[in-house]
Amino acid sequence: MSDTTLAKAEFDTESDISDYIALLKPRVMILVVFTALVGIIAAPIEVHPFTILVSIIFIALGGGASGALNMWYESDIDSLMRRTRNRPIPTGKITGDEAKAFGFALAGISVLMLGLSANWFAAALLVFTIFFYVVIYTIWLKRWTPQNIVIGGAAGAFPPMIGWAVATSGISVESVLMFSLIFLWTPPHFWALALFIRDDYEKASVPMLTVTHGRRSTRNHIFFYTISLALFALFTSFTSLGGWVYLGTALVLNSLFIAMAFNIWVRGDHEAEEDNFSVERRFFRYSLVYLFLQFGSILVDRGLGTNFSWGLL
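User: That's the sequence. What structure does it adopt?
Assistant: Structure tokens below.
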């Protein structure tokens, strides 16, 4: 190999800022930031805009720390899966030790600064969220049980609770309701993904439901969880968190969600494979839109003052 080729190879494996940003899982971070922001604004205590800004930054960094530590621990799995093999560690642009150090540094900074800028209860929730995602989900559940995404989904459901805690220094019925919406949303969202990347999970020996119980069972689970989510979302409409905008949004979004889940439920594997899992892919993409619009309607009701004064909870 010539010196020029060697130099090019070395350059290709050098890390840059974009690789460290990739470690933060920026697409996941968008969800973390948005739901945490909803938690802050939906709270009954007004928070100074500067406090909101810095709190969101440090909550986002905490989420990014979780992503970096997840990629460090799962680099062996990531290198086997088509969806993840181009991440910074499998490609050699960042070493596992660098990612681990980066993740722990971000975790420490985010927790310390959130405690100083907001309150220590919110910081404690952020610590627990990072711990839950990295230790409970990544290290323990993901490689052990097909219920990994059900239990582990709690990690992604904590941001609105952290946001609420930034404003109130505590937990309430409303913050638990927001947590529960994401918690119930997570399984159908990820199982839809698992339907069309089943081979990846099987190759990496990850006991996803599609691998351990098959696609038919996964379709059944998606339909059941989607109905459960829809019922809970509609129930939430009649609590202090809901309002006219939320109710209308929930009716439309969940009707569509159930209809799409039904289409997945009645499909056979052969039919799905023939059209490259197009229905499952649409469901997965819609689930992202669903969550943003459902949480967005909470903000709209707060802004317009259209919340129900006779909420059940």
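Residues 278-304 form the longest helix (27 residues).
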